[in-house]
Specification:
TIM Barrel, Sulfite Reductase Hemoprotein, domain 1
Length: about 400
């Protein structure tokens, strides 16, 4: 059961409420290079990112935003919403480059670095005012690496006077949530409506991040101000570390109904595409049954019973075929594209779990394990249909899969 947060319109994308959880990513190109940035946005959009954020940090980057929008529109990507990520000088850039402010679909600001002392509220108010003038939503993104130091000092001082003071970590988590809620309240006082506000409280330690979002959700429910929430584990790390850590944190929160947009922030290696973080988000949502993006292939890990070489090749071949053929299926069977995405396929390695698991799939094959009869039974919608054998099992099973899709989704 998801929190019934406010629905925020970002470009043509609905975020929050009962709408599907949205996948988000961010470019790492120099925004002043309009062609490279537009190219990466297209790559991210093709991979499945439904919203893309980009850095807007200089007088060279800001005027390129309308140019990037024009490139995207000309190439057929007019529906992808663009977020401007502002730090330190967002108030100045938004004032000095009104066309950029108008072009962006959402602004992202960090209350910890919009200014200090008296300048904080003035700079923050300037950004909110410009958002109101341009009818743009704003994500107020609190990050513990740049937490409002005035607020943190205030809360640390109060904590030190308590009979039973909280730990420094508890105070920091409370300060993160307080920063987000105070900023949202100030934005509403200035005139930005609740359905134009998205909040986030990002941290890089899994358990701390979970506690911060749980506390934020609890306080929103208590105050009856249910802002839409963006989830992310900041600075998650490289490769497996980043994917596993982010999935653990986001999965726990999503299971509680917390979160309306997500990003898995991976540190890319020179050999990995930026799009990997998008694939990670999609895989997480699909594995939890929250979204369906493509047919899911269930395959066992293999053990001493399985002929691992043949089994692994078949599982990989089926996955590769689906990735390649899916755009064709979606176009050819457009009326049933959503149903195709929910298709369940199983490639099992031996008789132990093969037949049983196969009966839970739409179409499945159970390969013979070592010492088993060299035949591979195929099941469709839980019922045995035929057995395959010989060297052409992969081609025969893929043809059966194609026939199944043709018969059921045409």
């Amino acid at each position: 059961m998801r929190l019934n947060t406010s629905t925020v319109l970002v470009g043509g994308m609905k975020i929050g409420g009962k709408n599907p959880i949205v996948v988000q990513s961010m470019t790492n190109t120099d925004t002043a290079d309009a062609k490279s940035t537009a190219k990466q946005i297209i790559e991210l959009a093709d991979a499945g990112s439904e919203i893309v954020r980009m850095t807007v940090n200089t007088n060279l980057a800001a005027p390129k935003v309308p140019e990037i929008r024009k490139i995207l529109d000309a190439k057929g990507y007019e529906k992808i919403p663009l977020i401007g990520d502002f730090h330190f000088n967002g108030h100045t850039l938004l004032e000095d480059f009104p066309e950029m402010a108008k072009t962006l679909d959402k602004y992202r600001i960090n209350p910890g670095n919009v200014g200090y002392g008296d300048k904080h509220d003035y700079n923050f108010s300037t950004i909110i005012r410009i958002a109101i003038e341009n009818d743009k939503p704003v994500r107020i993104g609190v990050n513990w690496g740049s937490l409002d130091q005035d607020l943190l000092t205030e809360m640390m001082n109060k904590n030190s006077k308590l009979i039973k003071p909280k730990s420094d970590k508890e105070v920091i988590i409370n300060a993160m949530v307080e920063s987000a809620l105070r900023s949202a309240t100030l934005a509403e006082k200035i005139g930005l409506s609740q359905n134009k506000i998205i909040l986030s409280v990002k941290m890089s330690i899994v358990q701390d991040m979970i506690k911060a979002y749980e506390l934020l959700a609890e306080k929103m429910l208590k105050n009856k101000h249910l802002y839409a929430l963006h989830l992310g584990l900041t600075e998650a790390g490289v490769g497996m570390q980043g994917i596993v850590s982010s999935s653990a944190a986001l999965g726990i929160l999503l299971q509680q109904g917390i979160g309306d947009t997500i990003r898995i922030s991976l540190t890319p290696t020179p050999t990995q595409p930026r799009t990997r973080e998008v694939e990670a988000c999609k895989t997480l949502l699909q594995s939890m049954g929250l979204r369906h993006f493509k047919p899911q292939v269930t395959s066992c890990p293999g053990c001493g019973r399985t002929d691992s070489h043949f089994f692994q090749e078949l599982a990989e071949e089926v996955n590769s075929h689906i990735t390649k053929i899916l755009p064709i299926w979606q176009k050819k069977y457009s009326k049933n594209a959503d149903k195709i995405a929910e298709l369940k396929i199983a490639v099992m390695g031996c008789v132990v779990n093969g037949p049983g698991e196969s009966k839970h799939a739409d179409i499945a094959i159970s390969l013979p394990g070592r010492m088993e009869k060299p035949v591979a039974p195929v099941y469709i919608k839980g019922k045995f249909v035929k057995s395959l054998q010989g060297k052409k099992i992969p081609q025969q099973f893929i043809q059966l899969l194609e026939d199944f899709v043709e018969e059921n989704f045409n």
